[in-house]
Amino acid sequence: MEAQIEQQLEKILPEDLARTFESAYHVFQGNHEHMDDLLKNGGVLLRKATRNFTPTQMILGIAALAAVAVVLINRAGDDNHEGEAHDVSKDDKRQIGDKDKEKK
Fold first, then answer.
1. Which of 20, 26, 54, 79 could bridge across to 34 with cysteines, CB 3.0–4.6 Å?
2. CB atoms near residue 51 (< 10 Å)
């Protein structure tokens, strides 16, 4: 009976995934107060996953998650500036012909 309860506790539950993704969403949105929750929930999820998967499966899974995270971060960074026009010229920068004007 006790072994069955321990095995039940070590299964990856949908609630574990939901808590981890919810914390990650909050951190991604800029609510850095949820960073502790993300680390705690991610650690629990990782601990449970290591008991169910082989080392090769864990490495491939973590690599896939890292690749998805990089793609999402790049996509989120690109969306902020898409379609916006910015004035890149500054008044305090010298132009090409300004060197001669300063010497006079």
1. 26
2. 10
Q: Is 45 helix (H, G, I), strand (E, B) or coil?
A: helix
H-run or E-run covering 13? none
Centre a 10 Å sphere on the Cβ of residue 20 and count the other Cβ atoms it contains: 20
**pLDDT exceeds 60 at position 6:** yes
Owner of token pair 């090409």: 96
Q: Round to whole Å and give the CA distance between 94 and 53.
A: 61
Q: CA–CA separation, 83 vs 88, rounded Å?
A: 15
Q: What is the DSSP letter of 10?
A: T
Q: Could you report the per-residue pLDDT of 58-102, keeping only the tens digit for each?
A: 899 889 888 887 887 787 776 555 556 666 666 555 556 655 555
End-to-end CA gap in the chain: 94
Q: What is the pTM of this model?
A: 0.54
